[in-house]
Amino acid sequence: MGGGTFVDGVRRWFKRRVNSTTSTTNNKSRSNANNRNEVVKSFQEKEEEGLRIVEDFDFSGLKFIRVPERVYFLVSDSPSSMNPHKRNVQETEFFTEYGEASRYQVGEVIGKGSYGVVGSAVDTHTGENVAIKKISDVFEHVSDATRILREIELLRLLRHPDIVEIKHIMLPPSHREFRAIYVVFELMESDLHQVIKANDDLTPEHYQFFLTMLLLIGIVPLSYVDLFFSKYTPAIDIWSIGCIFAEMLTGKPLFPGKNVVHQLDLMTDLLGTPPPEAISRIRNEKARRYLSSMRKKQPVPFKQKFPNADPLALCLLERLLAFDPKDRPTADEALGHPYFHGLSNVDREPSTQPISKLEFEFERTKLTKDDARELIYREILEYHPQMLQEYLCGGDQTSGFMYPSGVDRFKRQFAHLEEHNGKSERSTLLQRQHASLPRERVPAPKDEATVQNNDFERRTPASVATTLSSSPGPDGSVHSNGNEQNGLNKANYSARSLLKSASISASKCISVQAKRNTDEESITEYNEEVDRLPQKITNLHV
Ligand SMILES: Nc1ncnc2c1ncn2[C@@H]1O[C@H](COP(=O)(O)OP(=O)(O)OP(=O)(O)O)[C@@H](O)[C@H]1O
């Protein structure tokens, strides 16, 4: 999970705010309502193609802000459906006799991230608007597969009111051969980037409020003695929050790198070259070498880079963007920073259920591609309960049965969308023009070959940021270091045993979470659970 999840969280929050503002309008005073209507009206006058400013919202006395809402087109009303030829192609590709693809009526490409393309769709079973993220070539690089696994698992487990919900993950046609996955999310009408763009007059109180929201999402209780998450839990994506906060202050992405090397250059331009101890903790050898050989740069004072910002905001920002993750505060610590003093009514209680450490056993070891495939398949089965049961009973291990699936059909649909809609003017308009985390994979320039290897070079800075933020260094060193520090036995884990233990812990956690009140209870349960695991695994295999 990287910046994406937090941005998704903010999307989720905006959607919620917009809905609740709409539903409580009647309770507002008449003058407030009149005022509001005028503001909304003037916003609507500023309607742009593909982006409509539909709603303002206020919170506890702060000035109204504009919340832009994207305008989505479905197949039936998209401009391309006016072309009879295209329409024909789409219809044959969209409808299928069996499988889950027939459930979704796919609209258009609405965005691109470093892991894939996102299309809008309607879930014909529920009538809901959804966003379907197609993640291609999941297993090309095992580090990407691991990040994807971490992200989808966290999104399932976090269940936070401000975090976008995964509604479904489509079943791949084959357990062992799939390469792409299709993740169905609730469709968000807006995101923080759009809000920042639409409001050039945000006040310091708005910044304070947004940052509080982001940090509150970061407070996720982790049950048990926490051996490997510690303050570096991927759920507490402090670096990303720092980048988003900086973007709020300036209205521009902080490190808009075109590739990993460029990203490291931009980071060091601002933060200076990290000290040798910090570099030595970086796991990725190429990044380590690149940073070590870099000419020495002095940090730029934040007040020079952000001349109009509140000095306390900058003091906090500097901590959030500490190069070395061990110098970054936890979300909780950050919320205690003097920058937030005077902010009333902030409920700092975590609003998610505790997450079991056993769910993330895979973080302890270096996965192979097969392990990653197995674990991702297992995660997908969380959305297919009956098959999960069969899987846990070993039902699909020998048959080689190809489950009926809409994924193949979806591949073709997305290919079509990418080809036709993805390049259309409208889709371009819908995509972000700027981003803290660049959207596309960018081939690295040849002269930077010395610092590139497979994982290092393949993904854009979005992944670097993900790695930076969910781990302590630009290369994701935390898990490795944490493991080494804790003397964990990496070699003896097989994906199978990880899967089984995770599934046992998942069901166990569901039943115990409600009554889990104290750390002591959690530790006892954890110990008991671990004691029982070998027997449970044996039982599952017979
Ligand atoms: N649930 C959603 N509802 C509406 N739009 C979405 C949704 N999810 C993604 N998008 C759009 O698709 C774009 C790409 O999303 P994606 O999650 O792939 O990447 P990201 O979170 O922006 O960044 P990263 O590549 O770092 O994960 C987003 O910027 C947004 O415009």
TrEMBL record:
Organism, scientific name = Olea europaea subsp. europaea
Q: Which family does it belong to?
A: Belongs to the protein kinase superfamily. CMGC Ser/Thr protein kinase family. MAP kinase subfamily.
UniProt lists compositionally biased (Low complexity) regions at 19-37
Which parts of the sequence bind ATP? K134
Its domain of life reads Eukaryota
Q: Name one GO molecular function term.
A: ATP binding
Where does the record place the Protein kinase domain? 104-340
The record lists the lineage as: Eukaryota, Viridiplantae, Streptophyta, Embryophyta, Tracheophyta
Q: What is this protein called?
A: Mitogen-activated kinase 9
Task: Note down the stretches annotated as region Disordered.
Answer: 18-37, 420-489
Q: Where is the composition biased (Polar residues)?
A: 463-489
The cross-references to Pfam families, in alphabetical order and at most eight, read: Pkinase
According to the UniProt entry, which residue ranges have a biased composition of type Basic and acidic residues? 437-460
Q: Which UniProt keywords apply?
A: ATP-binding, Kinase, Nucleotide-binding, Serine/threonine-protein kinase, Transferase
